[in-house]
Protein: Rab5-interacting protein
Organism: Cucumis sativus
Amino acid sequence: MKDGKSMKVNSQLQQNGHLPPFKLAKLFDPETSWDKDQLGDVLHWMRQSVALVCGLLWGSIPLVGGVWFILFLVISTTMIYGYYAMILKVDEEEFGGHGVLLQEGLFASITLFLLMWTLIYSLGHF
C-alpha cells in the first residue's frame, strides 16, 4: 500500500517537477467532481467552523435563550445548502438527497456550538 502511494507521488513529481498544491479554488469550482466522502468531509468541517464562530460570538455578546439556538441551526443549514446547491451545483440525488447532505456534521456541530457558547458565556460572566 505504501509503495502504491509513493509511486503515485513519484509520478506526479516526474510530470511537473513538484507536487501539485491543494487548491482552495477547488472548493468553489462547480466543475469539480466530488465523491461522497470528499463532499461529506467538506460539509462537515464547514459546519464545524460555523458552530465555532457562532458559539464564540453568542457567548461573548452574551446571548441567552432558545431563539439563538434556532438561529444557529438556520444559519448553519442555510450555509450548507447554499454551498452545495448554489456554489458547487452538485446533484443532491447522487449523494443521497438533501437530507443526507444537510445532516452531514449536524450533531457534532450542535455539540461544539453549545460547548463554546456555554464556555465563553460562563467565563465572561462568573
